[in-house]
């Protein structure tokens, strides 16, 4: 390995990513599935962890994402500006079985717009794909709002792991492409 390769190996990125969306859509479980490969069938109001850090490699470089989870404040519509401060990526999550959570997506996007830079990388995440048999929102509906708002779109299941890593990594790659 040449010395310039050694220097490249030392390059490091740290990106703040926020996870937003209505209460009980599966935000905390998406994060615990991604960062620790864990799923909890019982919703815990407060986990006490503000963020988790997860690394991936892009172009041979270590890229770290510091992914923030709400401690349940979204129930009181009180996610603070500190939560969004410095975020360069966001996952906007709804539950494919509950229309009200899909109807809230625009409100979350507005809030994101208010508190962060317009270049923030965004993905719309329809979670609980394992409950496909009782879905209330078609993939086409999700895709359509994502396209009109300029977001990536993906359906996931934190329960069976479907597309969870893909969702986070799509955002992290997009951030990387934006700053590089
Ligand atoms: P949050 O309030 O958005 O952080 O949601 P939680 O992660 O606490 O999840 C709320 C509830 O939905 C919990 O009972 C979870 O076990 C459940 N849940 C989360 N993700 C999934 C999923 O992909 N599939 C199913 N079936 N349940 C899920
Ligand atoms: Mg939560």
TrEMBL record:
Gene Ontology CC: endomembrane system
Keywords annotated in UniProt: GTP-binding, Lipoprotein, Membrane, Nucleotide-binding, Prenylation
Keyword hit for DNA-binding: no
Record carries keyword DNA-binding: no
Species, as recorded: Kalanchoe fedtschenkoi
Similarity comment: family membership: Belongs to the small GTPase superfamily. Rab family.
Record's bilayer topology term: Lipid-anchor
Residues of the full protein shown: 1 to 180 of 219
Protein name, as recorded: Uncharacterized protein
Chief subcellular location: membrane
Compartments where located: Endomembrane system
GO MF, one example: GTPase activity
């Amino acid at each position: 390995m040449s010395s310039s390769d050694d220097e490249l190996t030392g390059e490091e990125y740290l990106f703040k990513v926020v996870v937003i969306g209505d209460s009980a859509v599966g935000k905390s479980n998406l994060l615990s599935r991604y960062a620790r490969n864990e799923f909890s069938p019982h919703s815990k109001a407060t986990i006490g962890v503000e963020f988790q850090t997860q690394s991936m490699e892009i172009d041979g470089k270590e890229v770290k994402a510091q992914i923030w989870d709400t401690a349940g404040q979204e129930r009181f519509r009180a996610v603070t500006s500190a939560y969004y401060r410095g975020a360069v990526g966001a996952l906007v999550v709804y539950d494919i079985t509950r229309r009200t959570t899909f109807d809230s997506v625009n409100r979350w996007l507005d809030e994101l717009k208010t508190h962060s830079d317009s270049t923030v990388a965004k993905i719309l995440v329809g979670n609980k794909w394992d409950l496909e048999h009782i879905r209330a929102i078609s993939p086409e509906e999700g895709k359509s709002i994502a396209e009109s708002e300029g977001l990536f779109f993906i359906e996931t299941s934190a329960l069976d792991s479907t597309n969870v890593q893909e969702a986070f990594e799509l955002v992290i790659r997009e951030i990387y492409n934006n700053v590089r």
